[in-house]
């Protein structure tokens, strides 16, 4: 059997190494870009069979690969995907191609290293979603921090070093508690780091709560949930456009994925016991962070806070423990990957021309960039949850799931749709509509063919998911049903 998961991990990593070895130096920048594009496309091609050959009727892990890695500690190179993890490997591989193309003309300083960092990070992130061994998961989970740290720290804005260190420390400190939980469960499970062995453990409620909270500290930072969200706006503002796209579209999903792969099935009683706590934090993110987004003067900060609010919907859906809630959360994650990635690319298009992200510096952009304004409007509408776009599907299904659990939870969650429309359309109006605000806006050139192609691909994905979501939801059903059974089984 073809090892598609290993290929999806190692093809981009090896391509990244080749880009550095063969494309370093200013004279070799064109070669570096071509190699990076070839590597990212190869990474996407080897990931596509994960969807085309996936059996949606099976709840078990598919495309499994197993090989002993560190036998003395029972640590294995064990890979596999189900209907939950498959989508995120595809989304990550797809986003990597877009990021390479987005940086094609923009990155003039060390382009080979820039492209290579994204390729390597793509492979490491795929490893996170494919790992079925806890230590293998932890290694990929930590290793992916390094390329993002470098991307923000080298190609970021004026406060890039501060933002990179804050991002790194927040994530690292939370992860150490997760590692401690893994070691505890390794000893309890008869010395196995297999995630399935952790899920089979019989643990009393007080132990489950400690395990849940240890893993929560790692994944909550990654989502990020309120109040450990403060690193994200700084990281987004200082990161280059590609860094912001990957942060929003992919890395935030890893925290939410961790809740589904670890917290819910390993500590189901603690998950139910702490569900009120998790729902409260999620609703604070949905409502309060939505209000914070309303007052932002920086476009990137506004979309960064918007991401936190949208991810609050995801965790809210997970902790109502029903099919609508969990599948809606997963759909919201995929949609957010398309829409937030597109929003940051649009802001990058403006920044490349005017070198400012301040809303007040714009006005009347539709007069000089009509094609761009049309794309930006579609993505702004999707960000606000307009029916017919992918942004509506996830939020609507989550709201249905939450409504089954509690009317008031659904009522407060639905306010996010109002806030989402308010802050997104308020920003769009001030940037795009009206008279031309100044000479800089008057001199703007509309999007070129490369930028048009990027935004068109994301526009098609956003509309396709919004109009016909069945191909996205169908592979999830069996895996989500299995997860719900695991979380309702009492282990005490």
How would you sum up this structure, described in words?
The chain is mainly α and 492 residues long. The chain is built from 24 helices and two strands. It has a two-stranded antiparallel sheet. Helix 2 packs antiparallel against helix 4. It is globular. The model has no long low-confidence stretch (mean pLDDT 88).
Instruction: Enumerate how many helices there are, as a single number.
Output: 24
Output the radius of gyration: 22 Å
| Structural class by SSE content | mainly alpha
Q: What's the β-strand tally?
A: 2
Termini gap: 40 Å
**Major sheet strand order:** 1-2
Order of helices and strands: HHHEEHHHHHHHHHHHHHHHHHHHHH
Q: What can be said about the biggest beta sheet?
A: 2 strands, antiparallel
Strand content: under 5%
Report the mean per-residue pLDDT as an integer.
88
What's the helical proportion of residues?
over 70%
* Large-scale geometry: globular
Low-pLDDT segments: none
Blueprint of the fold:
Blueprint: H1 4-23, H2 29-47, H3 49-52, E1 62-70, E2 75-81, H4 86-102, H5 111-130, H6 134-143, H7 145-155, H8 160-188, H9 195-199, H10 205-222, H11 231-238, H12 241-266, H13 268-273, H14 275-294, H15 299-318, H16 323-354, H17 365-368, H18 370-383, H19 390-405, H20 407-432, H21 439-442, H22 449-467, H23 470-473, H24 477-488
Antiparallel strand pairs: 1-2
Helix pairs in contact: 1-2, 1-5, 2-4, 2-5, 4-5, 4-12, 4-16, 5-6, 5-7, 5-12, 6-8, 7-8, 8-10, 8-11, 10-12, 11-15, 12-15, 12-16, 12-24, 14-15, 14-20, 15-16, 15-19, 15-20, 16-18, 16-19, 16-22, 18-20, 18-22, 19-20, 19-22
């Amino acid at each position: 059997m073809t090892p598609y998961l290993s290929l999806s991990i190692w093809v981009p990593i090896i391509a990244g190494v080749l880009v550095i070895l063969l494309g370093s130096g200013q004279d070799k920048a064109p070669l570096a870009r071509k190699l990076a594009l070839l590597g990212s496309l190869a990474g996407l091609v080897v990931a596509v069979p994960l969807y085309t050959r996936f059996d949606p009727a099976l709840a078990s892990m598919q495309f499994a690969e197993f090989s002993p890695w560190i036998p003395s500690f029972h640590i294995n190179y064990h890979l596999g995907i189900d209907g939950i993890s498959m989508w995120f490997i595809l989304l990550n591989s797809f986003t990597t191609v877009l990021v390479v193309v987005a940086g094609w003309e923009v990155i003039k300083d060390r382009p080979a290293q820039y492209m290579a960092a994204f390729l390597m990070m793509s492979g490491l992130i795929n490893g996170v979603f494919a790992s079925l061994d806890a230590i293998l998961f932890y290694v990929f989970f930590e290793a992916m921090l390094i390329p993002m740290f470098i991307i923000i720290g080298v190609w970021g804005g004026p406060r890039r070093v501060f933002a990179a260190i804050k991002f790194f420390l927040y994530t690292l400190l939370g992860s150490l508690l997760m590692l401690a939980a893994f070691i505890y469960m390794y000893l309890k499970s008869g010395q196995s780091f297999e995630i399935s062995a952790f899920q089979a453990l019989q643990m009393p409620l007080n132990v489950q709560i400690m395990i849940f909270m240890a893993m929560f500290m790692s994944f909550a930072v990654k989502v990020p949930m309120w109040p450990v969200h403060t690193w994200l706006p700084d990281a987004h503002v200082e990161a280059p456009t590609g860094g912001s796209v990957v942060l929003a579209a992919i890395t935030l999903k890893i925290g939410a994925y961790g809740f589904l792969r670890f917290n819910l099935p390993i500590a189901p009683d603690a998950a139910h016991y702490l569900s009120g706590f998790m729902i409260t934090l999620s609703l604070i993110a949905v409502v309060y962070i939505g209000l914070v987004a309303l007052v932002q003067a920086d476009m990137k900060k506004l979309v960064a806070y918007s991401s936190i609010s949208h991810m609050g919907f995801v965790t809210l859906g997970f902790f109502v423990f029903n099919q609508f809630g969990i599948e809606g959360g997963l759909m919201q994650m995929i949609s957010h990957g398309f829409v937030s990635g597109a929003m940051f690319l649009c802001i990058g298009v403006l920044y490349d021309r005017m070198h400012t992200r301040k809303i007040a510096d714009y006005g009347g952009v539709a007069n000089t960039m009509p094609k761009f304004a049309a794309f930006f409007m579609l993505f702004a509408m999707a960000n606000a949850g307009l029916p017919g776009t992918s942004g509506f599907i996830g939020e609507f299904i989550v709201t249905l799931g939450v409504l089954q659990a509690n009317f008031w939870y659904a009522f407060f969650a639905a306010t996010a749709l109002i806030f989402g429309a308010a802050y997104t359309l308020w920003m769009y109006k001030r940037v795009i509509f009206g008279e031309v605000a100044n000479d800089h806006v008057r001199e703007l050139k509309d999007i070129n063919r490369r930028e048009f192609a990027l935004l068109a691909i994301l526009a098609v994905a956003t509309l396709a998911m919004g109009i016909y979501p069945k191909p996205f939801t169908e592979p999830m059903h069996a895996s989500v049903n299995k997860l719900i059974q695991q979380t309702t089984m009492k282990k005490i």
